[in-house]
Write a structure and sequence with these properties.
Elements: H1 2-17, H2 22-34, H3 36-54, H4 64-73, H5 92-98, E1 108-111, E2 114-121, E3 126-132, E4 141-143, E5 147-153, E6 156-158, E7 161-163, E8 168-171, E9 176-177, E10 180-181, E11 187-193, E12 197-199, H6 203-211
Antiparallel strand pairs: 1-2, 2-3, 3-11, 4-9, 4-12, 5-8, 5-11, 6-7, 6-10
Amino acid sequence: MLLNLERLEFLVAQYVSGALPEPAHVLVGSHLEMRRSHAALARSFQNMAGDALAMIEPVPIDRRDVCLEEILGSHAPRHSEISSSVADDLPRMLRAYTGRDLASIPWRRKLPGLREHVIEKSAGIETSLLWARPGRALPSHGHTGLELTLVLEGQFQDHRGRFSEGDVSVADEELDHRPVASTRGPCLCFSVLLAPIALSGSAVGLVRDILGV
């Protein structure tokens, strides 16, 4: 789990700097809402960034008034637009990103015992909510790029250990795993996939996991 935590700390630093794509920014921001210890880490990064900026010599801004007009006239990012009618059952940033509360999610069955709601899908990114019944295993798979998974409710585990509410799993090309939901209850996750996964393992094992038996 140590390597996962190191990668998560790097993502928090990227979040503070504003370098993450919007879905990853929403995922890390939601994690910080759920985990106060990492929210403190984010604040320390912000303080360090502020101290570094304070040491830089001021530089005059070209077209200052025009720039201010453009900033003040621009629309706020989607993740800051929060409807007062949305229930407090998801982290604030994730509620705004999905535009829904949990009760109104239009789930679709992906596999037996596994439901999915795709929020956004393009050539370079796929974001979704995933719900797995207790004990449900996902087929063994590797990664061709980065996948971030935030646990919203319940738990899942793989060979790295257990991930509980508020935890983030960071997976990349080096990871091949078989996530399994805890038998204690369903597992609900927010997934940001920046590259396709690749199924792995034996044919018999894959068939069993796909069928959920």
